[in-house]
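Trying the structure run again after the queue cleared.
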Amino acid sequence: MNSRRSSEPHADNRRLRALETHVDPPVAQGGDLRIHLVYPNSYWVAMSNLGFQAVYRLFSQAPGVVIERGFLPDHPYDSKVYDQRWRTFESSRPLADCDVLAFSLSFETDYPHLFRMLSNAGVLSLDPAARAQHADTEKFNAPIILAGGTSVTLNPEPVADVLDVIMLGEAEEWIGEFAATLRDARAAGLNRVDSLARLAAIEGVYVPQFYTPSYESSGLVKGFAHSSIPTLTSASTTPTDTANTPTVSECLPAPKARRRFVKDLSKFPTYSGILTPETEFRSMFLTETGRGCEMGCRFCVAGYIYRPVRKRSEESLTDTVKIGLEHSDAVGFVGASVSSHKAIAKLASQVAETGARASLSSLMSQKVNRVLAASLSESEYKTVALAPEAGSERLRRAAGKRVSNNQVVEAARDLAEAGIRGFKLYFIVGLPTETNQDLEALVSLANEVRSAVVEASRESGKAAWVVLSVNPFIPKANTPFQWEPMLSQTELNKKIAHIRAAIKRIPNIELHFEPPKESYFQALLSRGDRRVARLLYAAEQQGKDWKWLLQQGSERLAAEVPPIDFYAMRRFGFDEVLPWEIVDSRIDRRLLLREAMRAHHGEDYTLEAEGAEELAEIEEIQRPELATTRALVESSVRSDLSF
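Done. C-alpha cells:
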C-alpha cells in the first residue's frame, strides 16, 4: 500500500511550497472555473507521480481555469485530524469550495482514501440524484466530482456511485475540451444534469448516472441499461426546475463511453512540472518516453490499456531533457518499456556526458547491451531492476513474457561488469498454471543471477547484491488474466515461506514481498462491480480503513453485496458479463480470450468461433488446486446472498 507519510503536520504546507521549483510556472490569468486537483494520498506519494503532475500542468494552462492541489493529510483516520476540514495546498481553501473536485486515481488502494476525503469535505454520497439536487439548490459546497487515472480507466465501477464524471484514458487533449464545455454550460445557466449531459458528449467521458447495471440472482452482472441523456438546444439553456425532469428538446440513448488516447504523444511533452526533494525521486526531473508495452504480458495492465504502443520521438525527448538539465542534476526516463526505445542508450549517454545522472524506470533484459549498461554506470546508477516475473521459461511463456533465463542472466552480468552493484528482481507468485517446480526454478534463477553479478564484480572489491521482490498475482481488468482467480492468502503465504526457506542459506540475496492480504484487497477493487462502493461506504461510515474490510472477507457487509471472496477468488466465466464492460476500453474481448487460452494451450491456439460449445470447453479449464476453493465460493454465494 502507498502509505508513506511526511512527518510534518498538514499545516506545514508553507515549508513544502518553499522547497518547490516550478519548471513551468502556472500561467498567470484570471479564471471563472475553479478546480481542485486532489491526489488521495500524501504529498510525498502524489508529487512522485508523473501523471498527477502532468494533469496539474495541463489544467494550469487551460484558459479560464484556476487550479489548486489537495493531498491526504497525515493520520487521516485519527479523529482529531478528521474533525478538521481538509484544505487545498496553495491557499487553504476547503476542498469542496470549487466548481470541480478532481481526483487523480492511479492505484485502487487509494479508493478508501477517496471516500475518506469526500466524507471530510461533506460531499460523500452514493446517490447521484441527491448530489444533483443539492448542486441545483445550494450555492456552495456542491462541486462536480471528477476522477481519472489508470485504475478507473481499467475498471471505473467500484467508485462509480460517488463520482459524477470519470475520465477514461489519456487527458492531454481532453482537459481543454472539458474546461471549455463546463464553462459554456455554466455561462448558459444549465443545471447539474444538463451540464453532465454536455460533458458526456466528449469522447472519453463516462457519466455513471446515465448507465445502470443489473444483476442475476446468483450475483453475476446481468447487463447494463443505458439511460436517456438530455440533448440540449438553445431553448433549454436556462436553469430548470430541479423538482422536475430537466427541460430538454429531446432525449437520446447514452452511447457507450469510450477510452480516449493520444495518437501523437510527441505533441504533448510529459515531464515534471514541479521539482521537490520531498518525493521518492528527490529533485530528479522525470520525462515520459512513451506509453504501452510491446511485450503484452498476459497479467500486465500496461501492455493492454495503453494500446496502441506509442513512443515519443528522439527529437522531442532531446528537447525535454534539455529543459530538465536546466533545473536538475538527474533525469529519469519513465515508461512501461523504457529500454525498448531505440534512442534510450543515446539519450542516457547524453545526460551522463553533462555530469548529470540518468535513470531508467524499467529495463527489459533482452534490451540491455553494453552501451546502455555503460551509460547507466557513467550516471553513477546504483541499482537496476529486472523483471523475469517467473522462474521457469515455461511459466514465463504462459504469462506472455518472452525472455529466456539466459537473457536475464546475461543482462545482469553486463550491468555488473559496467559497474552496477545492486540488482532487484521482480517475481510474481500464484500465476495461472504455476507449479511447485516453477517455485524451485525461481530460486534457481535468482541464485544464477547472484552468482553472475558477484563474479563480475569481484575485481572491483565491491560485491554485488540481489533483492528478490516477490508479489502475489492479482487479476486485473482488461488483461487476458482478468478471468483467473487469485489464490487464497493461505496458499500464497505457503509459497512465500517456501521461497524464503530456500534462499535463506544463499549469501547476497534478500527477500522482499507484498503481504498477500494487501493483494487480496487490490483484487476486490480490480474486479469489483458498482456494488463494491457500498462496502467502501460502510467502512467509511464506521471510520474504518481497508484492513477492517479484509477481516470481513467471507461475510456480507452490505445488503445485496457479495462477500469479498466472490470478487477476488472466483474464476470468472468466459461467457460472463464483466463489470468493466459497461465502458468501451478499445480492447477486443476476443483478443483477451485468445491470449487467455494460449496461456493454457500454447501459442498456436486460435479462437475460431465464440460459440456455445467452445465456451463450454473453455470453462473446463480449471487449475486442480483451485477447484475446491471455487466450489466453496460458489456455495457461499448461493447460501449467503439473497438478490
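The chain has 24 helices and 21 strands. Worth checking whether this holds up in the mutant runs.
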